[in-house]
Amino acid sequence: MPADHTAALDVERAHMAASRAALHAMREHAEAMYAIGAKIAGDPFSAETLGVALARRVAELADDPRTPLFFGRLDLDGAPEPGGESLTGRYHIGRRHVTDQLGEPLVLDWRAPVSRAFYQASVRDPQGVRTRRRFGFAGGDLTSFEDERLGQGEEFGTASRILIEEIERPRVGPMRDIVATIQPEQDELVRADLDTSICVQGAPGTGKTAVGLHRAAYLLYLHRERLRRTGVLILGPNQAFLSYISAVLPALGELEVRQSTLEGLIGRVPVSSADPVETEIVKHDSRMATVLHRALWSRLGRAESPIQVSDGAYRWRIDPGVLTRLVDDTRREKPAYLLGRERVRARVVGLLQRQAETRSGESPGEPWQRRMGKAKPVVEFLDACWPAMTPQSLVFELLSDPAALTRAAEGILTEAECRALLWPKPSRTVRSARWSSADLVLLDEAAGLLERETSLHHVIIDEAQDLSPMQCRAVARRTTHGSITLLGDLAQGTAPWAATDWVDSLRHLGKPDASVVPLTTGFRVPEAVVALANQLLPALAVNVPPAVSLRSEGSLVIRQADDLAAEVIAELDATRSLPGSVGVIAAHRHLDAVRAALAAAGEEPAELDTPTSSRVTVLPATLAKGLEYDHVIVVEPADIVDAEPRGLHRLYVVLTRAVTRLTVLHTRTLPEALTLATQG
Ligand SMILES: Nc1ncnc2c1ncn2[C@@H]1O[C@H](COP(=O)(O)OP(=O)(O)OP(=O)(O)O)[C@@H](O)[C@H]1O
């Protein structure tokens, strides 16, 4: 390193030390506030609220010695601020604001408006940036830097050595944040307005998950109070994936974002049975929404007899014609079902009240109204003409009563589809029903008809290509007044109902106008593997742009084996001296044999979502989505393809988990698409 470079780095290190000391002081100050918070708050409720806020502040100010406090610097030369003013001076950009005792900024949060230029400025549009400096680091220490003098036409783009080093870094443990190296096209998505819904179609490893997580952090920074009340939610495909991404937001100082699977979000009953796939397909079809709607609303009836009710002093009467009109009028207002029932009850009481007023000249009080609302004749009328329902009772009836299902599904489902829906041996009562995971979407749809969901402000949905129409509707019900970020790759759709076009998903999600933005630069998969994966694309029958890889390093080996287990062990031995994680991915039927071979060879592989120090993880192909390993060993691809109807898509997912080295081991003939790809 040249001497002037070394000297400059020393200055930066000193700034880092000063920033760390200042952060420490900020935290001590917050801790002191926390200690006296209870005393200064006037009442227990404010003490509690203040205590929670201060405790959060203390936690947010934690310093992680393994990461540097800043990773970039901007020298500004009259940059126009969003407000129109010009900014000059020097700003270090990091994971959070750090200020000195006088409140002067030592580090600017990466989400602050000024920091945008760090990600977006270019020679063509310098945004007032004279020099952009990026730092290389090891642990929390600065090791190098790289300057781009934009004013002098100097710009590295994806050739930045520091970016390359970052993406070539061996992967260990859970996912990391990418805040130091967010690319301009990713930054556009991260910083999109809160009210804008977007759909990101991105090839494997293009940073969709990373973009989603950073977008959550960005939105929370900009709209902290609003979002604290109404929430940001991240939806992922399974627990293994959620645990893989769980460290990213805390590393960015965001500790309170809810991350869930869709089942976790909508599950209102335990899942204790499984459906055959043809049944699941019908249950996830959007036509079920119409069937449920019809089944529910067809329960409204005409009043056959009058309500005759006594309040102890007098008897009142409402004629059937009036009651039927009341039901019809309320229905026309399109309320949620249970709200409608209560409206009818209130209107009946209103009619009784008017009769009482006419007779006595006085209005009966609230206790009288409540009593009349619960009077037996009123309840009997409601139960006959607008019966109370629960999600479970509605779905139970449809799945157990052929006549009820036929009535509700006529002209919507075929006879075969109805047969697929009906339980072969229905439980005797709703309470003893054994629900499947596909039933959860039906129950949620039913619940949405009965009562409106409260809307979240923003939902980020990862691996969204696998959402069924009914699952999309479940999300839509929770974002009626909010926005969504949809992240996915049509080529990776493995569910039987996987989307083949984003237009339909967006329609079911209630955001038909969201724009679909492609991401095509891959940061994970090496060139050789991307080339192989791209050649599978025609066989996947989806229209997506192929990926380009930023990683030229990396290897691909496809090897015929006699003994798969022995080959896996040999391959593991070959990777022993290399840094980074290893994922052995196979169809379910091979897992026991692979695990036994590993045990015999003295390897103790990690289980998914249990953090261990083991470098090797053995996992089924069905859980590989969204994950990555430096070295991936794929066992018997033909069995992965054969295991499910969209097995080739599954294979595409599995092949694209590799960061550095992909080894495919097979005894059977390779799937045809892969053979063509290797020849091509
Ligand atoms: N700008 C970036 N700088 C450095 N690393 C990045 C960048 N963008 C993405 N990465 C890294 O690339 C890898 C893939 O990112 P990510 O998992 O977000 O991709 P994805 O599009 O969600 O992939 P998949 O479709 O396979 O789920 C991760 O290790 C991520 O940290």
From TrEMBL:
The keyword Repeat belongs to this UniProt entry's keyword annotation: no
Keyword Hydrolase: yes
GO BP term, pick one: recombinational repair
Single GO MF descriptor: 3'-5' DNA helicase activity
Organism superkingdom: Bacteria
Swiss-Prot/TrEMBL keywords: ATP-binding, Helicase, Hydrolase, Nucleotide-binding
A single GO cellular-component term on record: cytosol
Residue numbers binding ATP: 202-209
Residue ranges annotated for the UvrD-like helicase ATP-binding domain, each copy included: 181-526
InterPro entries: DNA_helicase_UvrD/REP, P-loop_NTPase, UvrD-like_ATP-bd
Protein name as catalogued: DNA helicase
Organism: Salinispora arenicola
